Amino acid sequence: MNSGGSMTLAILSNGTRKVRRSILPGFGLSLGFTLFYLSAVVLVPLAALVIKPWSLGLDGFWNVLTSPRTLAALKLSFGAAAIAAMLNTVFGFVVAWVLVRYRVPGHWILDALVDLPFALPTAVAGIALSSLYALNGWLGGPLSHLGAKVAYTPLGVVVALVFIGLPFVVRTIEPVLAGLERDMEEAAATLGATRLQTFRHIILPALAPALITGAAMAFARGVGEYGSVIFIAGNIPMRSEIAPLLIVIRLEEFDYAGAAAVGFIMLALSFVMLFAFNALQHWMGKRQ
Amino acid sequence: MTSYYRNAIDDPPLLRAAFTTMAVTFIGLFLLLPLVTVFWQALGGGLDAVWDAITSHDALMAIRLTLLTAVITVPLNLVFGISAAWAIAKFDFHGKSLLTTLIDLPFSVSPVVAGLVYVLMFGLQGWLGPWLRDHDVKIIFALPGIVLATLFVTVPFVARELIPLMTDQGRAEEEAAISLGASGWSTFWRVTLPNIKWGLLYGVLLCNARAMGEFGAVSVVSGHINGLTNTMPLQVEVLYNDYEYVSAFAVASLLAFLALVTLVLKSFLEWQYADEIAATHRH
Known about the structure:
The complex is a heterodimer of chains A (288) and B (283). Chain A is mainly α and 288 residues long. Chain A has helices spanning 27-51, 57-66, 68-101, 107-114, 116-119, 122-133, 140-145, 154-179, 182-190, 195-224, 227-233, 243-252, 256-287; strands at residues 7-11, 17-21. Chain A has 13 helices and two strands, in the order E-E-H-H-H-H-H-H-H-H-H-H-H-H-H. Classes of the chains: A mainly alpha (288), B mainly alpha (283).
């Protein structure tokens, strides 16, 4: 492909293919710069992560991955992210439903607040949540009387990930919910369906792919989240220490290969899970 | 029976009340309360204490570093976003969807990993570490490392707004301009840019918010040197870990204020220019 422009293949009526070049300029320049920039900033550095752990040898790599501390950290990061994603799917649906279908007073404030976790730096969210849920905090005090300890426990990790993940679910469902044709619901209602039946058979199937996408995005973000979690988690090894923090600790010990091994496995697991989510979505799309 | 018909697709009042209460309580407890806490804790020490904390030497240096980082990274990612969207939206080529996926990749990578990869490359024991040390070039624990880590996490913001927007708009207008003899640059400035300006601003706004607020990636490469390599979010962490709560929340409240300004601008952009942005609003 030369720099003049890309080629568009057009199939002529007699079956021969004719190459049509776009008349717009700048294909070579823009694609070249894009590939160079992306490689320099993202792809080459990520390659370093893929290569580094093997300097430990296969046995060394395996030992890092199967050490109890690594396993506990991975279990917490992935487990808490999964629980938070599920909670966010339920509450995110309710929030999106209220925002789209009901005209509540102060609607725009609720709407703007949903984006807060995108805009608020994670460290700020982290110290705020930590002070809220500490034993002398506004929520931590009352909760401790009920026997629930949030700050400095795995539950604190879940709370932080619920905060950070909510907008992913709401913002993914919202446009789909707003675009749903109400005729289908009217038809179902006139044919005698209850509201619950209409929801179960008309609304939920249409919404399912967006729910899955939103949950997957919240989950992916939660697995890697650092700033909002470390302040409230207490970071007790084997109990409330998340995987990204373990990477930071290994780096502070100048154990680059150990840090890279944990980073590599996090990246690999995230890809497997995102792939699984995509497959699930594809399968559900086919079923409809 | 018309009233029955109308009610059929509306939710029963009880459900409506329950859902509304649930949504408002959830947003209040999980989103509003943390925000209120930041300002409350900061002001707990009085306005003077907040002012002293924000104007202390270390805090001012942190503010300077944060602004400097954003001033470098946002324009770079802006140029990248336009370039990527031009290539992807205006031309056909093999591997287009792969490229689009790769551009979004930083969103599925932990910020800590984003910092880690640069330490693996430029750190003392990294690939280029010994060479950099011999030539007295500092990347890790210095501004270049902070800029690189911030670039990594903010790469997709402008591109992901522009790609769907420019794909939707097609290429007919640009092709007309070129056919009439306009140069490539003047076509871009006079035809493309006016069509995408609000989407562009939207991407820049989100990119800037993340660049100024990034914590995980920057914390790995910064080294936490007071007054030198601490950005504002890192300064918050340092103060908080030193039990300087009022100062920590004072700097945090400045960041929270910035977040509020971002949200207001974002709502404004979405409300005013819904049509152009609707196509791009995919997250």
